[in-house]
Protein: NitT/TauT family transport system ATP-binding protein
Organism: Paralcaligenes ureilyticus
Amino acid sequence: MPQTATPLLSVQGVTLRYRTKDHLVTATYRVSFDVYRSDRFVIVGPSGCGKSTLLKAVGGYLRAVEGQIKLNNQEIVKPGPDRVMVFQEFDQLLPWKTVKENVVFALTASGRLKGKAAEEKALHYIDKVNLSAFANSYPHILSGGMKQRVAIARGMAMEPDILLMDEPFAALDALTRAKMQDELLQLWDDTRFTVLFVTHSISEAVKIGSRILLLSPHPGRVRAELHSEGADTKAPDGRRLEERIEELLFKEAATQGGISHD
Ligand SMILES: Nc1ncnc2c1ncn2[C@@H]1O[C@H](COP(=O)(O)OP(=O)(O)OP(=O)(O)O)[C@@H](O)[C@H]1O
């Protein structure tokens, strides 16, 4: 995406804080980045660097104490159907509703669609995640990976401006995780949706992302922004992208008196 285009999502100088009983916790410090339409924008960084907090703020669940977050040039002040979140947990579905009903419910409850139109849209996206045969099944008979597929179908059926994914595959076994990553890329090839994806896995970031934002350890600051080809390609200096990211995240931080690589 040409960087002269207007960003879909603009995060400028954003500091995010939690107020606990005893003290203030700064989760991110003056973080800035822009996401353009059809970007697969991945935020990667060590545990506790504020990735989930950033996603919550983009979702409209947390206000910045400094800086601004804008979607389509409008400041984000509350949650909205233009941003849909997919989480890591498998219990995101309503257990008393079938796969189809779960997706339909999201569409009708948000006022997006109703009746036949909602059902058709739901079935379209259930098919996209290869779960047509399970449209009338209840969540308890599905595997973890299948439940995540339903959560993705539900998110995509809402046709949000941006899909927010918080470590959606982290709780899956390695093989299922790799398969789900491939499927997500296939879905992106089909529909070119915009996704903001959070992970602490460098290999996942390299595979999923077209653009990768590296955050430093707590409190999260922008360490670098990189482009990815969707594979672990070598840079002109011969280093693999994964190695380069590791170096930026850990070695350079360590030499600056930051953290060590555990
Ligand atoms: N509800 C909360 N109240 C107080 N502090 C919080 C709260 N949620 C998160 N934090 C703190 O904010 C910082 C950032 O947390 P966050 O969950 O955003 O990090 P993360 O990068 O997503 O980590 P992980 O990869 O482990 O999920 C951490 O220091 C965390 O302890």
Q: What stands out?
A: Residues 145 and 176 are 7 Å apart (CA to CA). Residues 1-82+166-262 form a domain with the Rossmann fold fold (CATH 3.40.50.300). Helices lie at 51-59, 99-109, 115-128, 144-157, 174-191, 202-208, 241-255. Residues 18, 20, 25, 27, 45, 47-53, 200, 218 surround adenosine-5'-triphosphate (CB under 6 Å).
